[in-house]
Amino acid sequence: MSNINESGRIIDLHKEIDRRGNLTVVEQMKDIPFNISRVYWVYDVPGGKNRGGHAHKHCRELLVAASGSFNVTLDNGYEKRTFFLNHPYQGLLINTNVWRTLDDFSSGALCLVIAEDPFSEEDYIRDYDDFIAFIKAKE
Fold first, then answer.
1. In the predicted model, is pLDDT for residue 1 greater than 60?
2. Which residues form the Sugar 3,4-ketoisomerase QdtA cupin domain (predicted)?
3. How far apart are the C-alpha atoms of 22 and 32, rounded to whole Å?
4. Which of these is catalytic: 14, 54, 56, 58?
5. What does DSSP assign to residue 97?
């Protein structure tokens, strides 16, 4: 059984402060511990709805609240931990084999996702019971 604190952690990203507007940059293998293969964003999430609801077998991800705020609940199969994301200069680094659910999106929220791997349906576990069985089989 892995510790929930190993499932994900908030990392501070470099914030360049400028009176004309601030800038944050993420570089692979410098700011995050993986090469970037895919970037996507989630937005216009209706009130009361959630996103995520899956785990990845191999792909690590960095989630950033590029605008607005939302909660991310991580579940390692034994424990859960919820993170509140609301700063564009912080990201939640999510390790493999972790179920994630995103909810409580503020109006206008934009979740930026930086992924280690290209999309592969085989990497996803989309059923929670299958996720629990997968985690128990790894013990």
1. no
2. 9-135
3. 20
4. 54
5. S
